[in-house]
Amino acid sequence: MTQELSKFDRIIERYERSEESLLAILQDYQREFQYVPEEGMRRLSEVMGVPLSKLYAMATFYKALSLVPRGRHTIKVCTGTACHLKGAPQILETLERELRVKRNGTTEDGEFTLECVNCVGACAMAPVILVDEVYHGQNRPSKVMDIIKKQVGS
Amino acid sequence: MEKISVIIDGKVFEAEKDTCVLEVARRNGIYIPSLCYHGEVPSSGGSCRVCLVEAHQGGRMRLVTACNYPVRQGLEVKTDTPLVQRIRRGILELLLARVPNSEVIREMAAKEGVTEARFRKDEGESERYKCIACGLCTHVCAEVVGVHAIAMVGRGADKKPATPYDKPSDVCIGCGACAYACPTGAIQLKEKDGIRRIWHKDFEMVRCSVCGVPYIPKAQVDWIVKRTGKDRSFFDRCPDHR
Predict the structure, then answer these.
(1) Which residues of A119-131 are buried (b: 16+ CB within 10 A; e: fewer)?
(2) Is the overall model pTM greater than 0.90, yes or no?
(3) C-alpha count within 13 angstroms, C-beta hemisphere, residue A44
(4) Across chain A, what does the average pLDDT equal?
(5) Crossing angle for the helix pair A38-48 and A2-13, to the nearest 10 degrees
(6) Do both B76 and B137 map to the same domain?
(7) Is A54 an 8 Å CB contact of chain B?
(8) Interface subset of A 121-140, CB within 8 angstroms of B
């Protein structure tokens, strides 16, 4: 447990003890653990003297922070207007079926998190998916799994 | 404090500068509907929007929330113009669609002639569906009680007051101030056999030594003693028998 705590303390130590640091620390948690662990929140509350309820409100407000463990790879399916018209719903359905995961969920083996996003600003390439921040355009349901496999190498 | 005069619905009233319009109106018996504002809670108000009124100042008119708009010399407020009525009905209609189970909202809406919302109604379990997500409970918990047990969680349509992780809170003292302050009665507080249940947590109640009625959670007594140094024996009796 002490070792567990120290991994949070190492992150907290990088910052000044002020309320302005809270979000940056939560972002560092997210980067390091792929999510914001409850024990990390409790530790941060203790060290900073900030109510846990306040941290929880912050962590649930920002979409960039997740309270549940996420997959090693994040697949974002753009469901903005252009992508929607170009077949994003079919892409999403294919991924849900092939990966056996619901949207905004994580696969059982912890490999992939599937997310919907509203627009990634690449409408000319519609329909677009992002695999770990790499853009793939002009997708088709029949090709999409190959693209993902090729990138993550499995 | 500087005294100024303000006109509300054609009548002139004296008030302290920077008091909010709603306070001045209330003190002088002028009705403005309101939900999320409480005079004793500093950061309450501004979120439910039902108190919108016309503020005329310097030749311009703006729709403002009466609960957090400061009165200044030369301000004229109109609380019941056709524009205000139309906007108010719109807001109440939206609230009615959001919390069709709330008697308070239904009554307030009926008063403005709104009995049915044209929008899709939110349906679900009655507890959640009385909450208008105004945040007054969380402000009371933080600023009046000072324990920060609850906060507004999530965002957008799913925003709601909750304890962290929806688990029983470590810091909640079961005082029930949140439930008392809630304008729509959305917070469940249940008491049975000397146990109070609120926010998924059970609190043992202290009984009055005279009448035997369980009247205050032990955790709340602990909190008050810790914060104020008040003698614990003070709480042996309920307010009616002190």
Answers:
(1) ebebbebbbbbbb
(2) no
(3) 31
(4) 92
(5) 60
(6) no
(7) yes
(8) none
A56 touches chain B (CB under 8 A): yes
End-to-end CA distance of chain A: 35
Name the CATH superfamily for A73-152.
Answer: Glutaredoxin (3.40.30.10)
pLDDT digits (tens, 9 = 90+) for B158-189: 899 999 999 999 999 999 999 999 999 999 99
Give the domain-ending residue among B65, B80, B95. Answer: B80
Question: Which of chain A's residues have a Cβ under 8 Å away from the Cβ of B142?
Answer: 51
Q: CB under 8 Å to B144, separation ≥6 — which residues?
A: B40, B41, B177
Residues B9 and B53 sit within 8 Å (Cβ to Cβ): no
CATH of the domain at B60: 3.10.20.740
What is the domain partition of chain A in residue ranges?
Answer: 2-61, 73-152
Among the candidates B61, B80, B99, a domain finishes at: B80
Q: Which residues of B touch A61 (CB under 8 A)?
A: 154-155
β-pairing, B76-78 with B3-8? parallel
Q: Which residues constitute the domain of residue B155?
A: 133-241
- Token pair for A20: 């302005």
